[in-house]
Amino acid sequence: MPHPSHSIATPLQILVALSLWTGLTVPSVGYGADAAATPKASRQQHADRAKGLALATETVHRISEAQLLVADRVLTGEATCDFDQTVDLQPIAGKLGQFRLSYKKTSYTMIPEETTSGAVRLEDKMSGIVWLQIPSKSMLMNARAGQRMVDGCMHPEQRAAVAASKAAGASVAPEGEKKP
Prior knowledge:
By secondary structure, the chain is of the alpha+beta class. It has 2 domains: 11-60; 65-167, Beta Barrel (Lipocalin), CATH 2.40.128. Helix content is 31%, strand content 27%. An 8-stranded antiparallel β-sheet has the order 1-2-3-4-5-6-7-8. A hairpin with a 3-residue loop joins β1 (77-81) and β2. α1 (11-22) packs across α2. The termini are far apart. Mean pLDDT is 77; it is low at 1-9, 14-22 and 24-36.
């Protein structure tokens, strides 16, 4: 596990590191005589860059065993939220541990992250979107802006857990009082 003071590489940093390691170069755009360089070389450079970017993205989205354990606890399906909003969370076919979150006609690729609190945390690092799931509710946040996008989201399982908790609390009378 990385030390908390170490930073996590961004996709661009990974792409640069891969290009240095493999010897690939990122094509530059020129407007002089070099701009008319052979189209074949330009196409090859573009293809190499695309492969490097795909590899960098795959590397960023690689899921650890600990993240897979978090993924097993993710509640999927549609959650109803405050102000009649909905969030839909579905596993991505063929990509173990990755989820597609849809909210207001926008989709995000969410990856599980470990937490010390036991909460389920999914994050799309590219956009800064975070989905937090605790037993009583879930919420969608924009971590970059530092604000909640939607709150009070509940899957049917969370609704059942809250109802069971309330029912259990109502049947337990404080000490010295009689139950009705």
